[in-house]
Predict the 3D structure of the following.
Amino acid sequence: MSLTINHNLMSSNIVRSLSSEYKNVGNSVRKLSSGLRVGTAADDAAGLAIRELMRADISSLHQGIRNANDAISAVQVADGALQVIDEKLIRMKELAMQASTGSYNSAQRIIINSEYQAMASEIQRIAVSTDFNGIHLLDGSLSGEYDGRRNTSEGALHIHFGTGNDSAEDYYSMQIKPANLVGLGLAEPQIETSVPALNSVMPKNILVELSSGIRTVASIPANSENLVIDLDSLSADDDFQIFTRNGVHLAGTSLVDNVWIANGVDASNVNSMVINTANGFLPGAVYDSSHLLDGRPIADGGLGTAAPYGGPYSASYNGMNFSYSGDGDMNNDGMVLGAESQSETFRVDKNTEELLIFSVGSGVFRARANWSKLGGDTGGDYIPYKIDTQSEAQNMLGRIDNAIEIKDNIRAGLGALQNRLENTVTNLSIQAENLQSSESGISDIDVAIETTELTRQQILTQSSTAMLAQANSLPKIALQLLNT
């Protein structure tokens, strides 16, 4: 190597080596301080890509564990509520057994039925109010198919715990059948109809004219008190009937009466022409005349079970005491309403269920209603069964057994799902742990190896620094030659 002044090549070579070694020392210090072997893409481009995918999966698995644990909590909330419902059903079975025996009178059965209805109302309340994070669990909201296309999903509860969405391996669907009274078979569903309410058709104590026909004129809501309805036919062939929504004929004229026959209704077609949902009757309702107060006057010839003209005729059904004066004004159009001998009058002290006012005929009649209290709705979306008669109580024994079986099936499904979710949490935890181990192998630094490398680089840096000092002294030799 030539002895020069302009270029100290030896020094330049040492500076380059020193820069490289100093850089390596910096990298080692950075890795040791962060604990990461791959801190930047320059450290290991392929390793960085694999690590980030693994990190995303690990984070998703941890969230999946939280999702599964939340679902377990929801299952426990539902199961706890069903446990309380179980207690109510057992008491209801006991009450139904008590009311089924013949050693109790009607007044005592009404008292028994009061407690029974309280238990039923509590079951309905629990089913409607039990929720987890605002999601109702037992009212049937989770009984349908899953649909997550809206802001709030509908149907089954979708529990997502996997890292993808390609198969059922990534999620469970939690369906819970309704545990309300209708779902347990302890009540009839309240069917919405177009039948108008009594007060919208006949405002209190106001005389109105109505067209007849084979139709339901209005519905009388349950829990109405001291109701009186006066009607005066303006046609010779009109009549007035009272039905329950399940088809029990309480007041009016039997099917052998001229008014029914004239309008083409008899025992063979009454269910299709009269007892249908369009007229406000419940699905499956059938005509039942066993409680009919037949109000046909003597003019009809005394057919059927009609009492002699002059009424009123009184009876009781399902806790209701009612009377009907009979069709006393068949041909007299101008009589003043209110006189029982001149018009049809129906009275009920308090109706325990919704009633339907039905007309059959082809003319017009006048009507006026009065009441001390007009009931509200009939309990929301259901009509509960009762045990205030021995026959109804006996029928409820089988229904309550059915309800207990339905409830047990729901609880069994929830228990199986809880066990499955707990196993899922265990599996997800193991999966996340192993994936974390793999990610650590790619991402984390081996401190022992990197410390050794740091020491090596520090020694090289110190050696290069010493040699740079020697190389920088070489141009002084040329200066000495110039000075001689």
Remarks:
- The chain has nine helices and 17 strands.
- The CA atoms of residues 229 and 369 lie 4 Å apart.
- The first strand starts at residue 131 and ends at 132.
- The two ends are 22 Å apart (CA to CA).
